[in-house]
Design brief:
Elements: H1 3-31, H2 36-57, H3 67-89, H4 99-130, H5 135-159, H6 162-181, H7 196-199, H8 202-218, E1 227-228, E2 231-232, E3 241-244, E4 249-259, E5 275-283, E6 287-292, E7 320-324, H9 330-337, E8 342-347, H10 350-357, H11 363-366, E9 374-378, H12 381-387, E10 392-398, H13 403-407, H14 421-429, E11 431-442, H15 449-464, E12 474-479, E13 482-488, H16 494-507, E14 510-513, H17 522-528, H18 533-541, H19 566-575, H20 581-611, H21 620-652, H22 655-679, H23 685-712, H24 718-737, H25 739-750, H26 755-780, H27 782-803, H28 805-808, H29 812-820
Parallel strand pairs: 7-8, 7-10, 8-9, 10-11
Antiparallel strand pairs: 1-2, 3-4, 4-5, 5-6, 11-13, 12-13, 12-14
Helix pairs in contact: 1-2, 1-4, 1-5, 1-6, 2-4, 2-20, 2-26, 3-4, 3-6, 4-5, 5-22, 6-8, 14-15, 15-17, 20-26, 21-22, 21-24, 21-25, 21-26, 21-27, 22-24, 23-24, 23-27, 25-29, 26-27
């Protein structure tokens, strides 16, 4: 036997499993909607749980006598499945499908996502339960591989595109199969498994996958999504550039010479008078930013004075401006057109920044980087402004989101950290005494829902900064489908208000709010004249849509369904009352309910039903208490995990960082806790009760302590913020890591027969609890998920004691080895 090769195989398979999970979140963000990225976690849990149950049901078929062959076979099958399922997945169009076929297409997509994780569960289960090596060591390698995969996914996504990343993951998996093949544990089985003959050529498969991954990312003719956000991507006019990274997929195309496109053009704008060569940068398939060919002559970009997004620049005395979300450089160019000599752009996506500054054929097209006074920073906007000591006369944030995020805003987290009271307090704090913060968002004259939330957010921020009359600091105007909010650090002077009124009249912009006139709608008027933050909260919570000001605790700016009031939400959904974002919210909610229903059915059929015979004749007390214990662990752990993912996404600046760092930390520290529980078993009543209370107390303390800790570190570089996130997660992970192995030892001390049932219940609860945790955080705030997690862990104390622990404590240590051999 060659243990090193066996351990290498385990490491590579578990690393590839976590890499696939994170890569799939990026692909689904492009093809579908951002909220489905979080469903990948539950899909992965479901697949792995189902795979382990499958191994249990065939426990007589697999043993140490054929382990190397079995691991090689299933790992090779896993490598092929990752590549094939990834290719099939790119052809599916669940958004664009007609109603009659949509369910079937969703089933196809779910199968493509689940099958690799199912096979991964089979491989890991065999490695943990059939190998002759110490299970603690195998489990440690398992966790090390998974943790490495979390970080490896970031590197992979920044080196290649999404579909190619899937192929590289499949190649890494095939390398794991080669390692298993050389481990020499047992011989060949008597019965040949299906497809065994072609799958025996492991090295050939590995070479083919490596070549396929390399060619796919370099030829431009490889596997790419055919349907993105319900639209077929044709190749009749090939794009100038297609780039992926961990943040987005950027597709640049040549628009040609045409009338200059504006977001919120004035009715007086004569587009035919302003022809200019343009390029469109498409972001994740359903958002766009324009780049104009500019030769440095501001007169050639004078059309930008007709866009309502630039209204704030008409105010005098601006010397320094900053732009959040540079995109194609349009807002930075706008500042220069209005004569601002010093312009700073902060862009989180390095691809967009590179296109404007260094990319041949693109940087010289926009011409911005060649002009004096322009400064670029590749950073998350909120963190950069928290860190800088500079002050600005204008800070502009125009439509910083993707329409993909907005349309499915019930569950998006990508840019929500920019639209919270806490973030806006930072931005306003970086203004000069007479500086202004200007934000443009979508506007619907018939239903100003998103505009209402924008005003609510501005008022709440001003209240937080000590302003008693927010209406004196706010000016709001609209043109077409865009509304621009201008928030002044100081009250608007009569001179500046007269100037804004004159510009609005000249450009025929519609003034929605102004300190010197009545509001155009009663809703906006009631919001802006709220007497204090509490009155504002009560008012906006009781409107038909949820227009409460978003905070870091509840940062869901784009969700406007009042989920905290189920009856009102159901009424809105059934009558389809809403436009823009609200309609997208309703669609997202129905989609999530459908996916949850399918998940529930799949869990019942593939996990719960197959293992239910294991609970027969074990006694009502053990069946009830054990089911409650492992159900609570599944729900409690997932609530804690999802709460950390969502809150740290705001802190770290992007969901991909949150997924990678939080999963890395939780996997590693939960594994440490599980291993420590073997050395320090909870073998007395006092230890067990103390552990349950300690876990519940730490999770309950997070909502109290976390805000101050994260706000204090908001200006730190990404590496320090990541380190702090790990430090916050580590105690929770170690404590929660005790739960599962301790419960299994309890069960084994009483009656080991029903352990498969309890393991299945734990996995099923984890699969379904992810959707539950997201709904809880949106409705009541992210911190409520921590309280829900704490409640679950506190209830473990009576459940554990009811299993029979007090009478069987002496037998725990003797049975711990058998308990640890169960998949964790």
């Amino acid at each position: 036997m060659k243990p090193a090769r066996f351990y290498c195989g385990v490491f590579l398979v578990t690393a590839s499993g976590l890499m696939l999970q994170i890569v799939q979140t990026r692909i689904l963000s492009v093809v579908l909607w951002y909220y489905l990225a979080f469903l990948v976690i539950s899909i992965a849990m479901f697949g792995i749980t189902a795979g382990t149950v499958w191994v249990y049901l065939r426990r007589g078929q697999f043993s140490e006598r054929t382990l190397s062959h079995d691991l090689t076979y299933f790992t090779t099958l896993l490598a092929v499945a990752i590549a094939l399922c990834g290719a099939v997945q790119t052809t599916l169009a669940p958004v664009d499908s007609v109603v009659g076929t949509r369910l079937f297409v969703w089933f196809e997509l779910a199968t493509c996502l689940t099958l690799p994780f199912f096979l991964s569960g089979v491989v890991v289960s065999l490695a943990l339960t059939r190998s002759p090596f110490p299970v603690g060591r195998v489990y440690g390698v398992d966790l090390a591989g998974a943790a490495a995969g979390c970080l490896g996914a970031l590197m992979l996504l920044n080196l290649t595109d999404g579909p190619s990343a899937v192929l590289w993951v499949s190649a890494i998996t095939a390398l794991g199969a080669i390692a298993f093949a050389g481990s020499g544990i047992g011989g060949k089985p008597v019965t040949r498994l299906p497809f065994a003959v072609p799958l025996q050529y492991i090295k050939v498969i590995f070479v083919v996958l490596v070549l396929g991954a390399a060619l796919n990312s370099t030829t431009g003719q490889g596997i790419e999504p055919l349907v993105v956000k319900g639209k077929l991507e044709t190749t009749a006019d090939p794009p100038l550039l297609t780039k992926w990274n961990s943040f987005a997929r950027i597709l640049a195309s040549d628009v040609g010479v045409r009338p200059a496109g504006l977001w919120g053009p004035s009715p007086t704008y004569q587009s035919a008078d302003w022809p200019i060569e343009q390029r469109l940068m498409n972001i994740d398939g359903d958002a766009g930013t324009l780049a104009y060919r500019w030769d440095g002559n501001v007169a050639h970009a004078g059309f930008l004075k007709y866009d309502v997004t630039n209204l704030a620049y008409f105010l005098p005395g601006h010397r320094r401006a900053a732009v959040i979300g540079v995109g194609g450089g349009r807002d930075m160019l706008s500042a220069r057109v209005f004569g601002v000599p010093d312009v700073t752009g902060v862009e989180i996506n390095p691809i967009l920044a590179r296109l404007l500054t260094t990319e041949p054929g693109f940087a010289d097209f926009s011409g911005i980087a060649n002009q004096p006074g322009f400064h670029f920073h590749v950073d998350e906007g909120r963190s950069w402004f928290a860190r800088t000591s500079q002050s600005f006369d204008v800070i502009q944030m125009s439509l910083v989101d993707t329409w993909a995020a907005t349309g499915a805003g019930a569950f998006t987290l990508s840019e929500n950290g920019l639209y919270t009271v806490d973030a806006w307090a930072i931005f306003l704090g970086r203004l000069t005494d007479n500086g202004v913060f200007t934000v443009s968002r979508w506007y619907s004259p018939s239903d100003a829902n998103e505009t209402g939330r924008l005003v609510s957010l501005a008022a709440a921020t001003l209240f937080k900064l000590g302003v008693t009359e927010p209406r004196r600091h706010v000016f709001l105007a609209a043109s077409g489908s865009i509304a621009t909010l201008i928030v002044s650090r100081s009250p608007f002077s009569d001179t500046n208000l007269a100037l804004l009124d004159r510009v609005a009249a000249d450009k025929q912009f519609k003034i929605l709010l102004s300190p010197d006139r009545d509001p155009t709608t009663s809703m906006l008027g009631r919001i802006i004249v709220s007497g204090n933050a509490q009155e504002l909260q009560r008012l906006t919570a009781n409107l038909p849509l949820d227009l409460t000001p978003p905070t870091d605790e509840r940062p869901f700016f784009f969700n406007q369904l009042p989920l905290f009031d189920p009856w009102r939400t159901i009424t809105l959904a059934l009558h389809q009352r809403g436009t823009g974002v609200a309609t997208g919210n309703i669609s997202a909610m129905f989609t999530l309910i459908s996916v949850f229903a399918m998940s529930l059915l799949a869990v019942l059929l593939t996990i719960v039903y197959p293992v239910h015979p294991a609970i027969a004749d074990v006694g009502r007390r053990l069946a009830t208490a054990g089911t409650a214990y492992f159900l609570l662990i599944g729900v409690g752990f997932m609530c804690g995990e999802m709460g950390l993912l969502q809150r740290l996404s705001v802190f770290l600046g992007h969901p991909i960082y949150s997924l990678s760092i939080v999963l890395f930390s939780l996997i590693l520290t939960t594994g440490v806790g599980s291993l420590v529980s073997d050395r320090l078993p909870l073998d007395t009543r006092a230890r067990f009760v103390l552990w349950g209370l300690a876990t519940a107390c730490y999770l309950s303390a997070l909502p109290v302590c976390l805000p101050a800790v994260l706000h204090a570190a908001e200006s730190a570089p990404l590496a320090m913020r990541a380190a702090l996130s790990v430090a916050v997660i580590a105690p929770a992970g170690v404590l929660m890591g005790f739960g599962f192995p301790t419960g299994m030892r309890f069960i084994n001390a009483v009656n080991p027969t029903p352990t498969p049932w309890f393991w299945g219940i734990n996995g099923a609860a984890g699969v379904l609890a992810s959707s539950f945790a997201i709904a809880i955080s949106i409705a009541f705030g992210i911190y409520v998920t921590f309280y829900a997690s704490a409640l679950c862990y506190s209830l473990l104390i009576p459940a554990g004691l009811l299993i029979g622990f007090p009478q069987r404590a002496a037998g725990l240590t003797a049975n711990s080895a058998e308990a640890d051999r169960l998949p964790a």
